[in-house]
Amino acid sequence: MSEAPPRASAPLAAVIVGGGFAGIGMAIRLKQAGIHDFLLLEREAGIGGTWRDNTYPNAACDVPSVLYSFSFEPGFPFPRFYARQPDILRYQRHCVSKHGIEPHLRLNCGVRTAHWDGTAACWRIHTLHGEVISARALITATGQLSVPRLPDIAGLASFTGPCLHSARWDPGVDLQGRRVAVIGTGASAAQLLPQAVSRAIRVTLFQRTPPYVLPRPDRPAPRWESWLYGHVPPLRWLSRGTVFAVQEFLGLSLYALPVLGAVVRQLCLAHLWLRVRDPALRRKLTPSYALGCKRILVDNGFYGAVTQPHCEVVTEAIASVGPDHVRTVDGGRHEADVLVLATGFASQTFNGTFEIAGRDGRTLSEAWREGAYAYRGVTVHGFPNLFMLYGPNTNLGHNSILYMTESQIGYVLGALRALRAAPGEALEVLPEAESQWNARLQQALGRTVWSTGGCGNWYQGPGGRITSNWSGSTFSYRGALRRFDAEHYARLAPR
Ligand code: NAP
Question: From the CA of 388, how far away is ligand 1's center (Å)?
Answer without folding.
Answer: 24
